[in-house]
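Q: What structure does this chain adopt?
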Amino acid sequence: MLEPPFPHRQILAAEQADRELLSVLRDMVDCNEDISMRAVVRRMSTLSQATALTRDRWRSDLVHAWQKEQQRLRSLTGRWDHTSKEALALRAETDRARISALETEAAILRAGLVALIRAVGEQGAFRRWRSFFDGYEQTFAVLKECGVLPEAAVVQLEAARSKPERK
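A:
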């Protein structure tokens, strides 16, 4: 929380009490200790009565603001505190198993796609198959990057020779 501006106090002891109050509130939130007027006063050396907080508007507002902040922090951390280490370990293990299953499935799909592309290529219809990817150059690039598409060097054949003369 941001440090609020301190009010002008005519007595030095009151200024010290304000600074100690802020310090005590920070400590109580850090230690996750319930903030109440009496609990705050118990931890302070400069104040001994809860009415010293409740009668002063600035101090009272400050305590209420820190109580709201503590509730907010507890609601955020409460979501994870109820999960035991065993439950987290179990969840991590199931997540690892799910990831492994998805990786296996992706490998199977990749192998099936390679087989499909090779079968289409053997039939001489690779150009026709590739025409389905017009406008999807990025998809085709990903397939090429994954090593799914066959690569072969293209060899230019010599020009057709004239037919040998028959005798």
